Amino acid sequence: MIEKFEYKFTQIASLLGDKSRSVMLWCLLDGRAYTAMELSICADISAQSASNHLKKLIEANLLQVEKQGRHRYYRYANAEVAQVIESMAGLVPLEDKYERTKKPKHNDITYARTCYDHLAGEIGVKVTDALLKNGILEIEAKIYRVTRIGKKWFQDLSIDVDSLQLQKRSFAHPCLDWSERRHHLAGALGSSLLTTMLHNDWIRRKKDSREVVVTAKGEIELKARLNIEL
Question: Where does the HTH arsR-type domain lie (predicted)?
Fold first, then answer.
């Protein structure tokens, strides 16, 4: 049994260890689906080579494909795959010139970005810290739980905590932020919070990028609701 598990583990490790496949998996972290041609451009390989790599990733249940019209779109098989890819970036040593004590530029991907379907970067960590500090969330056995006060807080944002807990995915868990080396909120709750912030124009996506911009309205709301100074 152990040998069988080790064999499967080495298979996954070898898939992630390939440069082209790792680049394509990294590109998919923005939460959007891509065609094989688009991913081949990201990885700087031929479309045929990309298709071969994508086939292996699908067979390993790391990706799924959806056909729409004449095109086939690839995305992560589930949120857990995205979590692993983002966490792997935490193993990369930060450059000496990068100082976490120095506030990044507001257009820096380390300042505010999406991590698959939730908010990451300095802002993502600040929001998570504020949710904990204000008693909206509490952490237990490496899982975030919504408090009684928190349930009301999310309800005020039209986020139904009870419905999210019924989804067939992690409800709320810490995700290690590769640039801050601290945790931000992931899971169904993190995804719903990001969607709400985008819908209410607290943040806006930057075109062709994982970066997001905090709007003036967002700064006001984050200050009023979480006492976050930006």
Answer: 1-96
pLDDT score recorded for residue 199: 97
Token pair of 217, please?
A: 């309205």
Give the pLDDT confidence score for residue 105 in this predicted structure: 55
The pLDDT of residue 80 is 85
Residue 108 is encoded by which pair of tokens? Answer: 């820096």
Dihedral angle sign, alpha carbons of residues 201, 205, 207, 211: positive
Nearest-angstrom CA–CA distance, 85 and 107: 23
Give the start-end residues of each E strand in 128-177: 137-140, 143-146, 173-176
- Distance between CA 178 and CA 175 in Å, rounded? 9
Residue 224 identity: A
pTM for this one? Answer: 0.73
Please provide the distance, in angstroms rounded to a whole number, between the alpha carbons at the two ends of the chain.
52
Burial of 67 (0-12, 13-18, 19+ CB in 10 A): exposed
Asked whether the beta carbons of 34 and 73 are under 8 A apart, the reply is yes
57: Cβ contacts below 8 Å, ≥ 6 apart: 15, 21, 24, 25, 63
Q: Which of 129, 89, 91, 128 is nearest to 109 (CA)?
A: 89
Residue 72 is given by DSSP the state: E
| Structure tokens belonging to residue 92 | 């990369």
Domains along the chain with CATH numbers: 2-77 (1.10.10.10), 84-226 (no CATH)
Identity of the amino acid at 41:
I
Instruction: For 195-220, write each residue's pLDDT tens digit.
Output: 999 999 999 999 888 899 999 999 99
